[in-house]
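Worked example 2:
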Amino acid sequence: MAIFLLFAAFRPIPINQPAAPAILGVDDIMDEERRYHLKQAVLWATVITVAHFVVPSAAHAWHWLHTALSALYLPLIFRAALWFGLRGGMTAGVGCALLYLGYLALRWVVGGSLNHDQFAFPAVFLFVGWSSGLVVEDARYKRWQRDEVIRRANAAELLRQPQPPSTQDAGNGPRHRE
């Protein structure tokens, strides 16, 4: 899982959005924040997966807990999409699907009971990662468009304001008309 989520640490720039200029000190903070989020995603994926393997699966009485644990992957995928965009959502979806398929494979080898609906979870993980990542990327692009319109409007407003006469060019002032 850690290998798959490492790719999420490199977020792509949305289409038609120029790269932001580097700001001294801010980029280091963002990198630290991204590392923190990546550690959180790996930690929760590990905890959920270990819980799957620890909870007994021989008796059908524990099936409800395995279903609940499977559903706990979903908030992790949502958060990865929020933190890292489409790449993060897809990477978390693929990683969680592989972890869950690994659990199902081990359970099948050991001889535990399998329900066919359990094989739908990996597809759900992939769909949730893809769809939430698209929503986040779209929201980021729309926010960039809004900020760009505001920036251009502010720049145009500054150009429309009356400029004081230049003191360096004596021929431009109101007293020097011919």
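The radius of gyration is 26 Å. The chain is about 70% helix and 0% strand.
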